[in-house]
Amino acid sequence: MLSKNQIKYVNSLKQKKFREEHNLFLAEGTKIVPELLVSDINVKQVYATSDFFRNNKIAATIERFEIKENELERVSALMAPNEVLAVCETPHYQLEIDSLKDKLTLLLDEIKDPGNLGTIIRVADWFGIENIICSNETVDAFNPKVVQATMGSISRIKIHYTDLSDFLMNQESTIKYQVFGALLAGESIYSKQLPSSGFIIIGNESKGISEKLLPYITDKIRIPSFSHYKAVTGEAESLNAAIATSVICSEFRRRKN
Amino acid sequence: MLSKNQIKYVNSLKQKKFREEHNLFLAEGTKIVPELLVSDINVKQVYATSDFFRNNKIAATIERFEIKENELERVSALMAPNEVLAVCETPHYQLEIDSLKDKLTLLLDEIKDPGNLGTIIRVADWFGIENIICSNETVDAFNPKVVQATMGSISRIKIHYTDLSDFLMNQESTIKYQVFGALLAGESIYSKQLPSSGFIIIGNESKGISEKLLPYITDKIRIPSFSHYKAVTGEAESLNAAIATSVICSEFRRRKN
User: Fold this and answer.
1) Residue A160 belongs to a domain with what CATH number?
2) B238 neighbourhood in chain A, CB within 8 Å
3) What would the pLDDT profile of B47-99 be if each residue is shown by its tens digit?
4) A169, A142 in Cβ contact below 8 A?
5) Chain A: residue nearest B206 by CA?
6) Do B250 and A247 touch (CB under 8 A)?
7) Which of A246, A252, B138, B235 has the highest local Cβ count within 10 Å?
């Protein structure tokens, strides 16, 4: 049985303010929680049905609460709760620029949609990108909707939050990184030479890359469109931010083959 | 002022049953509705604020209702209604297999998530794919969530619903199409020869491509993963269906460059 206080406590972690205060986040379901249990993420509590506990090994250091499906509904952030909810410690990673030298790194400039951010984290995992550096305006990666959309990749990608223009300004004094930005006037990613390391800036869903970051872009790239139509609303046609990320990452990685 | 009956009528179109009965669908917002107004889609009614009518030309044949923001909220399917809602006639296209001969066509095998379907339609538009053939189990493309996620591409892509195994069985007797399916044991899309025409099957979000469609696949393809990790839950890591579609379509189109 869950106490009123427990229900209140778990539900409070759906809000960024309380996640930050407690340095905790929520993850749910039989796909994601087992991934977290074997990852470097420090899982603190598991609320689950007897079925889940029967089928999964849980370290003795983790607090466990066996609950019924209807109790799970009272704490879940999902439309269809799925056996288990875990309360986990939010990881913090040192952002050491020199450690990024031989790596491909994503810089997210104000990604607002939780589903997009979660999908981008999952894409990064697939394409072997270890670090994502988010602008402070980017949605919280430990928002339950983001965590769900990562399908477990949240445990494998180092996510950092910082001021991206400060970050890019400071990096100019050390190693020279190539900074890629998708812009309408860029060079086709299909024909451009793409290295196996560097920074890729992904812009906001509607505004694209911020003006203040443009001076740091060393290489303008573009995903060619094969559409038979032109948009009529004055805005250019565009791809969803997560889709653009996947096409760009795929092109970078193809060259390694 | 909207009457109670009008509110009820517009809201009824959020349900598939009533969309089919009336052969109508809803589209909303200042990005999508202007695209529909200049497309081949037959827009029947526009409910909008005075601002919208001031800024957009509406053909005389379209019924127009000037309403306030708070009235729009009563018929909108969006969290944040945006000036305009349009009631449109659902288009129906003849599915003539011979007309697909020199084209790249997507076959969607039970895509269930409206956001995924909408994004796939938008991706198809970007990559110049004219037809999408959906299995009867695929979510309705004229569901308001799908329409919104297409960002207007719904007006430019011919969407068909049929039984995919019947469709693929019948096509065997005429022109020989290559049928591509993303499978774990496929050939890397980066190194495989890819033509500028054929069918690409995209499988269900969790189950992948149906068993009954496997015999029709002539070319097994695979998006290589560069991940440093292996999944622990028994399931293979995967990409979201819309992400996989975008990476595959990008690879097919790259070869045309």
Assistant:
1) 3.40.1280.10
2) 151
3) 999 999 999 999 999 999 999 999 999 999 998 899 999 999 999 999 988 88
4) no
5) A31
6) yes
7) A246
